[in-house]
Amino acid sequence: MTLVDANVLLYVVNAQAEHHAASRAWMRSALRSGRPVGLAWLALTAFIRLSTKVGLFPAPLDVSDATGIVRSWVDHPATLVLEPTARHAGVLAGLLQEVGTGGNLVNDAHLAAIAVEHDAEVVSYDNDFSRFTGVRWSIPSAG
Questions:
Q1: Which residues fall within 8 angstroms of residue 44, CB to CB, at 6 or more apart?
Q2: Helix (H, G, I), strand (E, B), or coil: what is residue 121?
Q3: pTM, to two decimals
Q4: Cβ contacts of 16 within 8 Å, gap of 6 or more
């Protein structure tokens, strides 16, 4: 199973983005692969927040479009919304203590902890996931 980070979701939708083609191709392939595609509300709400933010996209989405896209992902038969488990506090604390910092890594560690709990691989362009031992991550590939 994979767990998709917000940056990949943004690239899937933003046709002007450098990683749009690879992200879109990866997402299409993943949704057809027969393997579950995991989504976390952390990434989904980040997608809504950032895709509707003036100045980030050449033409920001309106809230209705952004939430509609999220609903289409959540409702897709190949996706699963992954939630933290009862182990989450311990896994999250362990990941943060291992890297010795919080700050900007907290959301990444939260997503990484969800991935560990569900034996999922994080799919992201953010190489900070490489800092967490035991967390599998990959960059989307168009092929």
A1: 6, 9, 70, 73, 74
A2: strand
A3: 0.95
A4: 57, 58
Q: How far apart are CA 89 and CA 112, in angstroms?
A: 12
Q: Is residue 13 part of a domain?
A: yes
CATH code of residue 14 = 3.40.50.1010
The total domain count for the chain is 1
Domain of residue 10: give its range. Answer: 2-138
CB 125 within 8 A of CB 9: no
Q: What is the pLDDT of residues 36-48, one digit of tens each?
A: 999 999 999 999 9
Q: Is residue 143 part of a domain?
A: no
pLDDT in tens, 64-121: 999 999 999 999 999 999 999 999 999 999 999 999 988 989 999 999 999 999 999 9
